[in-house]
Structure formats: structure tokens, C-alpha cells
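Morning. Coffee machine broken again, so started the prediction first thing and wrote up yesterday's gels while waiting. Chain of 445 residues, entered below exactly as on the submission form.
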Amino acid sequence: MFKRSILSSVQAVWTSLFVLLAFAHPALGQNGQQGKILGGYFEEWSIYYAGYNIANLQQNGVADKLTHLIYAFANVTTTPAPGCAIADTWADYQSPYLPSVSGTPYPGPLYGNFAAIQQLKQLHPRLKVLISMGGASATNVAAFVSASSTEAGRQALVSSCINMFIQGNIAAGLTAPSLFDGFNIDWEFPTAADTENFTALLKEFRSQLDVLGETTGKHYILSFDGPAGAQNYVNIDLKQAAEQVDFITIDGYNYAGSWDTQTNDASPLFDDRQDPLYGQDLYIDSTVNAYLKAGVPPRKYTMGVPLYGAGWTGVPDVNHGLYQESTGPSPVPLANGQGPCTDLSGNTPGCDTLLTPGIATYSSLVNLAANGYRAWFDRQRVAVSLYDPATETFYTYDDPDTAFLKMLYVDVKVPGGLGGAYVWALKDDDANGTMVKTMAAGLGR
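Came back before lunch.
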């Protein structure tokens, strides 16, 4: 107990100095190494209700800041054989209605997001684009489990994915070589029974990509999504898995959410003795320590920063709404912050684009402060929240202050720093890309 008290006191002092120095000397965050990764997930469905396109990344300057664009998702299938599959043909390569990135019309026959990515890469030849495979759907998880369980299944899956996305055989009669520079494996999440097969699948990807690279003279990137929760990352042989990949996109969010009845910070950097869940490792620094202790090289650790927040309603006006019991998830707000959305069908414009109670995008949350919400910065946890006493609604999210401080942490956590950071998801930033640009400044980009 005495040792824990000392550690807590040291952390509190260090955190205060860390925050004070960062705000007093903004240039500190600009000393980051140019080799740091700054990635961003682009969801293929962004083009629908959100109306967010690849062209937005060019228009708002975010493409100038990113090192890696991660396109989500490709499906994993076992029918008729293990392989990759297009998740949304219209969004991916068929829609002729998406705005041009370069100002030049898409000539076809390739259209959709894939054609936009081609134009973006022409304008930004150093930008690496990965296809993320999987996601949280039960069918993709089941396909990962099945395909990775045998050597033949792993070989077939990897061969199919390389053929489709690296060699560019997108569909019958439609090719787009060099569209993607590698893969991000998003298996959510391997169980204890999958530990060896997960590593074996990564090894198969690394092997086949390297063989192809011997022919093309290119290095193809491989990464995987690493969970934040110990109940999930303990099922991965992190040291062996890390040896196969260039970097790991490690979740830095969902430490709390509307599935909890009590409000809490969803993406805090540090723990807090005032937290009723203190000591349960529900914070980023604990996740970082666990991965590094397991043998993951710091340069392969990329920290996830959410561009969305978690919200609750029925929250009493105590402690800024933090650590309080709620009556349920917050209602979906209007994007302008001036009340709740009353139509979640997606047929009415003006709502927060996630259209889901209990979460909201940064672009909407930033408007709430001007509409009755009080903002509060938690120096102990490096977290920020919003509370409206009139509606008893509470949100926890990241803003430019916490994003900048997290990038400073990436720079100084260990000698040489961590590998970088990424965001989920690009469409949830404001129109100017403020969060991504702030992170870029913090990493010295």
C-alpha cells in the first residue's frame, strides 16, 4: 500500500509537470522525429450519411500530414475457399459520383474510393495506403478463426488477399495494381484458442509479401490492430506477433463507454485514485507498459486516438458529471450542438454522423461547448469532458489539448519515443482536420 501511494504521488507530480511544460512551451511537441507514424482510418461508408470522401483529405490538408492511410474494411471469407472479399463494391470501386481528388475526372473503369485513392497517391507519393481486413463483424471473426486454423487455409487466405489488393485484381476485368502498400489485420479479437494460429497467420502474410517483394523490389507493410483491454491482448503472443509486422495499431480508446452505467473517461492517458475503477488498468499508459513488457519494440507501438466521444444522460451535477451513475446512453446530438437528433434513420441531414446513442463525433462535440455544456480538463488523467447540467448529459472525448499531450507522451515515454499514433476515424474530425493537424504538430510533422 505504501509503495502504491508513492507511485501515485510520483505520477501526479510528473503529470502536472508534463502538462505544465507542454502548455508553457508548445515547441516541445515539435521536436518529434520525422520517422514517427501518423495514420488515419478511412471508413468506406464515410461517403454515405457523413458525406466524407477521400477528396476531403486533400482539400483540408490532412493528406499532407498523414504517413499512412488505412482503408476499412475488406471482408474475410471461407466461401468457397479462404480469401479476401470486397465489402462494399459500390463504395469501393463502382460509384462514379465521388468528387475528384485532383480535379481531373475519374476515367474509369475504376471509380469509387479506390479511384480516389489512386489520385491521392499520385499527389502524395510518400503516403502509404493499407487495406484493413476484418473489423468487428461476427462473420469476419469466424472466417479468421477458420482460415487460420490450418496451413492450407492460411496460405489460401494470404494468397487471395495479395492477389486482390496488392496485385490489384479487384474484380473480373478490373485491375488496380499498386493501389495498396500492405495490410492491417483487424481480427477482433483472437481467443486463447487462437494464439498460435494468429501468429502463424501473420508469419504467412510476412512470408508471401516478402516473396513478392523480391520480384517487385518493394517492401510491403504489415500491421495488426492490437486491443487495449488485457482480457484480449493476453490471447496474443505479442512478442512473436510484433516480430512479423512493421507496426501495431493499438487501441487507445473504449476504456469506458455507454455499456457502463457509471460515467468515466474513455481514453485517459493515466489512472486516478479518485476513479472507482482505480487499479484496473483502464488507461493508455497501462496498455503501453503491458505491450512493452511483453516484448513489443517501442518503435512498433502506435497509439490510437479516438475522434469520437462516449456519452451518458441522467447524470447528476456532481464532480463535473465524472464517476457518476447515469440512466443510460446520451441521445444523438445535432451536428451543430443545438439539441438532440430526433430522426436516427439517416434520412434527415444535420445529425451527428454516427447516428448512435452513447457516442458522438469530435466535429459535433466541439459545438456543444457553445450550447450550454461546460468543459473540464482533468490534469491527472490528461482527459477532457463536457457536462450540461440542464439536460444532465456528460461526454468524455479528446480535444486538441489532450491530442497534443498524447503526442508529447509518444515522444518521451521511452528514449526515442514510441512509433507514432493514428486516429479512428478521419471523417469524425472537424472540417479543417484540426485533431489530425494538432497530432502532426505534436509529432513534429
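The radius of gyration is 22 Å. Going to sketch it on the whiteboard this afternoon.
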